[in-house]
Amino acid sequence: MASSLASIQFTPTPASFPSLAPRLRFKAPSNIPVNHDPLNPITFLLRAALVYPNKLALAHPDTPNPVAYTFSIWAQRTQNLAYALLKAGLNHGDRVAVIAPNTPLIADAHYGVLAARGILVPINTRLKPHEVAYILEHSGASIILVDYEYKHLVGSTKARVIVSNDTGRAGDPYEEFLTQGRAYSNERGWQGLEAEPDENTGAVLCYTSGTTGRPKGVITTLRGSYLAAIGNAFEGQINKTSTYLWILPMFHASGWTYPWANVFAFATQITLRTVNFTHIWNHLIHSGVTHYCGAPTVQIGIINDPLARKLPPSRPVTAIIAGAAPTAHLIAELEKKGIKPVHVYGLTETYGPFTRNYEQDAWANLSLDERSRFMARQGHAFATAGEVRVVFQSENSDVLEDVPADGKTLGEIVTRGNIVMKEYFNDPAATSKAFKGGSFRTGDLAVIHPDGSVAIMDRSKDIIISGGENASSLAIEQELASHPHVLEVSVVARNHIKWGERPMAFVTLHPQHTSKWKGRHHEFEKDLKAHAKPRLPGFACPEWVEVVPELPKTSTGKILKTELRKVVAKL
Amino acid sequence: MASSLASIQFTPTPASFPSLAPRLRFKAPSNIPVNHDPLNPITFLLRAALVYPNKLALAHPDTPNPVAYTFSIWAQRTQNLAYALLKAGLNHGDRVAVIAPNTPLIADAHYGVLAARGILVPINTRLKPHEVAYILEHSGASIILVDYEYKHLVGSTKARVIVSNDTGRAGDPYEEFLTQGRAYSNERGWQGLEAEPDENTGAVLCYTSGTTGRPKGVITTLRGSYLAAIGNAFEGQINKTSTYLWILPMFHASGWTYPWANVFAFATQITLRTVNFTHIWNHLIHSGVTHYCGAPTVQIGIINDPLARKLPPSRPVTAIIAGAAPTAHLIAELEKKGIKPVHVYGLTETYGPFTRNYEQDAWANLSLDERSRFMARQGHAFATAGEVRVVFQSENSDVLEDVPADGKTLGEIVTRGNIVMKEYFNDPAATSKAFKGGSFRTGDLAVIHPDGSVAIMDRSKDIIISGGENASSLAIEQELASHPHVLEVSVVARNHIKWGERPMAFVTLHPQHTSKWKGRHHEFEKDLKAHAKPRLPGFACPEWVEVVPELPKTSTGKILKTELRKVVAKL
Prior knowledge:
Two copies of one chain form a homodimer.
Chain A: H1 3-6, H2 42-51, E1 56-60, E2 67-70, H3 71-87, E3 95-99, H4 104-115, E4 119-123, H5 129-139, E5 143-147, E6 160-164, H6 173-185, E7 202-207, E8 217-221, H7 222-235, E9 243-246, H8 253-256, H9 258-264, E10 268-271, H10 277-286, E11 291-294, H11 296-304, E12 317-321, H12 328-336, E13 339-347, E14 352-356, H13 368-375, E15 380-381, E16 388-393, E17 400-402, E18 411-415, E19 423-424, H14 428-434, E20 440-448, E21 454-459, E22 463-466, E23 469-472, H15 473-480, E24 486-496, E25 500-509, H16 511-514, H17 521-532, E26 544-547, H18 561-569
Parallel strand pairs in A: 1-10, 3-4, 3-5, 5-6, 9-10, 9-11, 11-12, 12-13, 25-26
Antiparallel strand pairs in A: 1-2, 7-8, 8-19, 13-14, 14-15, 16-17, 16-18, 18-20, 20-21, 22-23, 24-25
Domain AMP-dependent synthetase/ligase (chains A, B): 47-425
Family (chains A, B): Belongs to the ATP-dependent AMP-binding enzyme family.
GO molecular function, one term (chains A, B): ligase activity
């Protein structure tokens, strides 16, 4: 076992230990055929607890009160949580909110809430109190599980509030809650809990971070969660020997279903309360980490950390990247450190990733620059996803028509199938708009290449119309990011007297190169424009470049172009 | 690519090449929710053809007319087959029989028949004409795809018969049939084929080899095939870099769903018409084979072949073993050759494997003999399977009760869930008997150990009642097989004047040791009894040992205890 995890000194609470010969299965629902098991990701944990009861399932090391749970004990704790929720009056389909960073609490909730046949509502801890209040109100959550550090986000509420001090020790209110659940179960165990007979029942209610307007509540199903998790486990080639490091927040689209995917694969999970690069490298080096997920902005922090080093080839690490395409620079830096980047794409409405960039043998012979252009594509629908299409809709027609697979014609990415959300909660108008034409409309504008891979050009609102040409801000960003001194870049439209619109680039510089350009931003602008000229058509070259200390971002790390547009509007 | 496959000189027929920009998806069924894709294993091939069109999908090397197909071409050929079947008048749910050894024909049928929304009926080529006639009659197959070598198995029939000469070349009647399908499609492609809207529709109709009575027709579903295939891909850790060698007949429980599992994982498949150990070793050594399935009898042939050698650790090979537990000798010999044995268990009614022996870290410290005892257990339900239970049924009760998990109490293995058959075709009485108590009754007698793993003791009829004790013939066989000179062994009950029954062992000797014991079988009997004495309770020690040149077997390689019992009855 990994040295830094093996050193955890911890004994779980007495209520965490299962009875001697637990039956690790639910009470079978009646009146369903012998050949039908409703798909449900909780079954992954019951199976892991049966097959590898003593394997380390969940470690939470970098806190004053570190904890570590085996599959057997973790399963019992999620069962306790289910009974505690039932004792607290939870009814079938009731919502349970959880407000927590990556901790055992939110990991537990991904099983315990589903086992009680409730719907989990993970809430982004970076939201403002009034935003949290809106979600609590809209979801109608009757029980709130909250980490001590985020208690202030819960205002006055009629819901029952359970606080976790994140200790795992007796005396912690959350532990008391679990202990009550264990007592309430009266040792009926899993057999006292009814399996959900309908796999199309809601599982999780995640709110989109919505850069504009009110957040929308995305309802996913048990079937979709099961299939998406298996898809992620397979695409990541996660297995029993894997160790997954939680960098991506679990509240973000249910951690892209990885709380279940890792358990399906019998992998060990490590939770970190914060994105702390020292801790991350400590675990990459000492804890045998093999997989983690994160947006490019986080990946940039990882490769630039002073502790960063080349990892031994005996323990290859896979970085699953979504949120934006990895740049050539990022790909090269990750690979230098022995980390294999895998580019995936998705939205909260698609359980996180539903496409993957599939590496082709022929790319091995390409230059980094050429290879990174291929790797920046969002690629093909992944293992258990349905189709991915790029479409347009003629006026007065309901039919979505495919754009030609020419790598040029812009259309909207749509998908359908088992890993598309069920609906927006209590919002039939938004649901029917999102499903217009019989597919889920992502709102992302893309081309489809002759090989069937899709490449996002922009969100519809991010296209820059320069001299009558459509310039993709993403494509411009991709090229500008290949400048070795650029750390991050975002491009938006700025009005232009002659061309209508012209691209303006906001750039942060690499820490190593900041001093070089200090007081010489104008020279840097010239340098970057010269870099862009051979790489981009004239209408897409940035007319203006502004070096800034940092870019405005959403709570989930997405760059807020709306803020940049406000800046531009004032120029 | 593997040298022995790369040397294949072959150009597919013109009809095998897809049109320039094929849409690799079916016409979407109408009136199903946006978030529902009926699970269907054909989607694996469409996805592989999209993501890795030029990767080698299927090679058929060791024939006068070797062939090799990429995913793109193979997908087109299965589409041609679907249209050819529709042109021949196939209606939804009609049965299509295939009588073939492991060839592209039967691999194609696993996709083409399903794409035409027919039900595939794979027929064992080792059956007698009257047995085949029964299956053709009972299944009501309206179209028969037959390999040239097995034409004689098709008697007079009203069904349309298509013969394959297994050439893949123009002029072959099967190729003509595919070409007609391509013409009939009129280039409507996959979009001209309706996806099956109901995932619980029948997919395959496999007949059990039934050692007694008429074979029963097992109907599996699309959903079950999809989930079982993913389970097998995951359990085998098959991926894009894998090469699967077809030793197990594909007609046997649809090749345990591997025709789909391999494609899900983007693996290459190699088909062999016969179990030829020279060819098998050629491919293990030269074609980069990573996976194969087979019963212990076949595995014994592999390890004893003169070509057998240690394979390089750089390309680990996994042998998936079912049909009977691997013995200590077999495990040791496979491991010596760099082949990792994985023991799985299942029946035709469970899509092949539904349990797996999960290796535990602690076993690494055990002696081979102790370790093989653990590895002989059938283990736990696997990835996408439902529960596995060992039960008894009290008189006058419908409820199946679990036996204690003590490793001692005998009960019947039952299971339920997504990888249990839908029904016995046209046999509601047999179906309801098999599902009595709300689970599928395997008829296998087993114990359940405290760790939840199951271990088969016997088929109910194979228990030997010796002095009032239940002796498991399997447990006795396992111990006798640990004698280094024993190749295979089968134990049946023989009447005994004092004890009621006593075990009698039929043994074949290892080729290297046959000469040693020639004319000295009585000495060998003493030697084997002495070997058994410290290993088995007195009532389980064989009273009689008979050395035979070979053991009687079914067409699928199972030892026919019924034949041995006939021998015993005459003694």
